[in-house]
Write a structure and sequence with these properties.
The protein is α/β, with parallel strands linked by helices. The chain has helices spanning 11-20, 54-59, 87-99, 119-134, 146-149, 156-170, 261-270, 290-295, 330-346, 367-385, 392-406, 412-416, 422-431, 446-459, 477-487, 515-520, 576-579, 587-590, 597-611, and strands spanning 2-7, 45-50, 67-75, 110-112, 141-143, 172-173, 200-201, 210-217, 221-228, 246-255, 258-259, 276-277, 304-305, 354-359, 437-440, 465-472, 506-514, 527-529, 558-560, 582-584.
């Protein structure tokens, strides 16, 4: 498996964000673990590991650079502020990493800290280390590669891991530079002399070396990894965890005008199709730019889709500021509302070891913030081009009006919602969950990848339950024009072929536990997920449909289609097996909801199983196959 990370976002956007957070040091120096450090230094980078099971690597004679012994994941849960670290979550990550590792904390030679250079963050991290390592009388050397490379954000952990692997290989620990007044923990358990400030030899000469890497991200997402220099025989022949069947014990959704399961049920089983004209003000006048639309093969009158008209939420419940200018972007508000409803339905208690996974993609409307910044120069160029002269006051007034119409100025709270992965942490914070919280982005496959991850987490015993949410406001002008350019997405429902789709938008959530746990706790079950498979070739999923192949133990009664039409490999001739399978396509009714489309299909299928009915089609599609419609 290839596993890596990359950080190469728009530098201007990154710099504006950290400026709003007031996170940059005045002296422009990266000084993690220094008492006088004034903030972090953002940077870019990428890295990649080729991973193999240890048994397989040794059997194949591969060069083993290091062994990942264990990983401890956690989330801070409920805390003070989304950008403020909580030692509770960091200590929990330490504890989980060592729980089943077979190694004691006092055996660790070196800890690569997350330390970014922010005064609060570095202080909290050292105190967390003192709390955990202190009770084991462990005093490992410490350092931070961010003094050399800066904070690579999404790739930050990759820099730290690469450093410790090379350090163990060469038996030398590189220094943490720019440390003039070294920090220490509150009670001195992690003293300043543990910081490696000059290149030094490894603390001992034994062949086997142990080191760790901490990665503590925005929103309180924490990871602590244990590395060995050499393979350990005790790690060989490790039992492979069985992937459990998963039970959906909570579920809710808002897609298009359908708010909640009752409305979705009515749409699916009455065969309704929600293709509505574009709501007023939704596109802020973009729809009136006929020249722009024509470049993408669109017309204003054909801009139809399954739009979300509005939704309500209790700002007090979510502890959100009432000031509209501080409001989070709709993408994050929507996922918080829907997820909260599904969790309440599931009966899960607050404060548990529950993971939160959110399937999502970058909200493309964020480019308007970048556009706001660029407008001043664009206006200046346009005035010069047309020979228009304005005094400074009128020029500023014109610039302000256009800027605010495109995107208002962004305060701290709203800018935090521009960071996609924080939405998972917001949910974990609201419910005080301490399992891992993260986002997964794989376009239309985001939900299936999230479900696959959930199954692994449950199978390994890492968590007691997993919340999987998916959100995509795919009806924005940026999103629709981009899809139209590359995929020619239909903007209306004039054709009857279900491969022609219109834009949809929405959010859905399922709450998962292992089936055995759901049964033992007598939880109400919407449906059961038996297995999850991904294939590069579409025909691999449909081998059971070919009459020449052996009949499987069970043939599905319902086949829920994705955003594309039938695979070309499905046999066209009529046969009994195909005649017994009904086709369904939720996107035929509620549009193509991007990263949330898989969740829409999952909710529809679960409702079918729960109520033991087959859904109706919204029209009479062209059906040249032998499937039932």
């Amino acid at each position: 498996m290839l596993a890596g990370a990359v950080s190469a976002a728009d530098p201007f956007f990154i710099n504006m964000g950290f400026s709003i957070f007031q996170a940059y040091p005045e002296n422009e120096k990266s000084q993690p673990l220094d008492q006088n450090s004034g903030g972090l230094f953002a940077s870019e980078g990428a890295g990649m590991f080729l991973l193999k099971r240890l048994d397989d690597a040794l059997k194949d004679g591969d060069t083993v650079h290091a062994v990942i012994r264990s990983v401890g994941w956690s989330n801070d849960g409920r805390g003070q502020f989304v950008l403020s670290p909580n030692p509770k979550g960091q200590v929990l990550a330490f504890e989980r990493a060592y729980a089943d590792s077979g190694i004691q904390p006092e055996k660790i030679d070196y800890v690569e800290c997350h330390a970014t250079g922010t005064p609060l963050g570095d202080k909290v991290e050292l105190n967390s280390m003192e709390t955990f390592f202190g009770k084991h009388d462990a005093k490992p050397k410490i350092g931070s590669v961010k003094s050399n490379l800066g904070h690579m954000l999404t790739a930050a952990g990759m820099g730290g891991m690469t450093k410790v692997i090379l350090a163990m290989k060469h038996g030398m620990i590189p220094p943490t530079i720019n440390v003039e007044s070294p920090m220490e923990s509150g009670d001195g358990g992690i003293s300043s002399d543990l910081i490696v400030r000059e290149t030094c030899s490894w603390p001992h000469q034994r062949e086997q070396k142990h080191s760790t890497v901490s990665a503590f991200g925005f929103g309180g997402t924490n990871a602590h990894l244990l590395f060995d220099r050499l393979p350990d025989e005790t790690l060989l022949k490790a039992e492979k965890s069985e992937l459990p069947r998963m039970a959906i014990i909570g579920m809710d959704g808002i897609f298009g005008p359908c708010n909640g399961l009752d409305s979705l049920y009515e749409t699916f089983f009455e065969g309704k199709s929600h293709t509505e004209p574009l709501p007023l003000k939704r596109w802020k006048g973009f729809e009136q730019d006929t020249e722009l639309l024509s470049e993408y093969g669109l017309k204003t009158e054909n801009l139809k889709g399954a739009w979300i008209p509005d939704f309500t939420m209790d700002f007090l419940r979510f502890k959100l500021p009432p000031n509209p200018k501080e409001r989070l972007i709709p993408q994050q508000l929507l996922v918080m509302e829907v997820t909260d409803r599904a969790l309440k339905q599931s009966g899960i208690q607050e404060g548990g070891n529950v993971a939160v996974l959110v399937a999502m993609e970058t909200e493309l409307e964020l480019h308007r913030f970048r556009g706001r910044i660029n407008l001043e120069q664009q206006i200046e160029n346009s005035l010069l081009k047309h020979g228009i002269s304005l005094d400074d006051s009128k020029k500023e007034e014109l610039s302000r009006l256009i800027r605010d119409n495109l995107h208002e100025s962004v305060p701290v709270n709203q800018f935090t919602s521009f960071i996609g992965n924080i939405m998972a942490s917001r949910i974990a914070s609201l419910w005080d969950f301490n399992g891992p919280a993260l986002t997964i982005s794989a376009e239309e496959h985001s939900v299936s990848k999230a479900l696959e991850t959930a199954q692994v987490l449950l199978g390994n015993g890492n968590v007691d339950a997993v919340v999987v949410s998916a959100v995509d406001l795919a009806g924005s002008p940026e999103n629709l024009l981009l899809r139209q350019k590359f995929f020619g997405q239909s903007s209306s429902n004039e054709t009857k072929d279900f491969s022609e789709l219109f834009p949809g938008e929405g959010c859905g959530t399922v709450v998962l536990t292992s089936l055995s746990q759901a049964v033992s706790e007598e939880k109400p079950i919407w449906s059961i997920i038996d297995s999850i498979q991904h294939h590069q070739a579409r025909e691999a999923d449909f081998k059971f449909l070919n009459p020449k192949n052996p009949v499987p133990n069970s043939t599905p009664g319902l086949l829920e289609l994705g955003f594309s039409a039938l695979p070309s490999e499905v046999p066209e001739q009529s046969n009994e097996r195909l005649n017994s399978i009904s086709l369904s396509c939720s996107q035929n009714q509620l549009g193509h909801a991007g990263a949330a489309s898989g969740m829409l299909s999952l909710i529809k299928t679960s409702l079918c199983l729960q109520h033991r009915v087959l859904p109706a089609w919204s029209d009479n599609p062209r059906n040249e196959s032998s499937f039932r419609l």
